[in-house]
Amino acid sequence: MAAPSTAAKILDTAYILLDREGPQALSMRRVADTVGITPMAIYRHYPNREALLNAVAERIFEVVAADWSRRSRDPDPPGRLLALLEPHLDFALRHPHLFDLAFSARREGARRYPEDFRAGRSPTFNVAVDAIAEGMRRGVLREDDPHAVMMTVTGLQHGLIALYRAGRFSIDEAAFRRFYMDAMQRLLDGLRA
After folding, report:
1. Residue 162 is part of which domain span?
2. What CATH number corresponds to the domain at position 155?
């Protein structure tokens, strides 16, 4: 197996630093020092911090989409969608800095609704939209716009996660997880045909 390229080492290092320490740890100098290259050499691969952050965000989406694709095997579309919602919560709670960069932080180059999502440019959103669209085709879910439905689901997910992380729930993580999954089930029950 070939050794990773310098660009891959930079990306791997930035991903790990962001995950462990948050965005304040992600300076071009710190990444370069950790990789073992000069601070100026990093700019041959990533022209600025924003480009590096976008590359890290794309890596996050690849990781999450691969996990979701492995989990989306339930033949029942609502069951498949529900099976994707829990790992999203897991990722948000286990990797809050990565979650924030990919799903919450304002950044240039981030995909936007509706145009990017309708064009199929979101590797994570696409997996969930496919389950919703299949459920509608099979008559299990009410006929509607699958993209708008998934954005509604996403809004509920992210709202609950943000409230929990902001300390607005007085329950422990296990109880919050149950509340979150119950809320998702309620939403899906309301979408059934």
Report:
1. 56-191
2. 1.10.357.10
Q: What are phi and psi of 141, to 5 degrees?
A: -110, 150
Query: Do 31 and 67 sit in the same domain of this protein?
Result: no
**141: which strand partners?**
192
Length of the chain: 193
3-class secondary structure, 141: strand
Tokens of 132: 């919703």
| 192 phi and psi angles, rounded to 5 deg | -65, 150
- Sign, CA dihedral 83-138-159-66, equals positive
Are both 118 and 159 inside the same structural domain?
A: yes
For residues 84 and 127, membership in a common domain is answered with yes
- Co-location of 116 and 151 in the same domain: yes
Q: Can you give the pLDDT at residue 164?
A: 98
pLDDT digits (tens, 9 = 90+) for 73-131: 778 888 888 888 889 999 999 999 999 999 999 988 899 999 999 999 998 899 899 99
Residue of 136, 175, 182, 133 whose CA lies nearest to 156: 182
Predicted structure pTM score:
0.91
User: Which residues, in sequence order, are CB contacts of 89 under 8 Å at separation 6+?
Assistant: 157, 161, 177, 180, 181
Structure tokens at 6: 């310098």
> Of 174, 151, 152, 153, whose CA–CA distance to 82 is shortest?
153
Judge whether residue 2 has pLDDT over 80: no
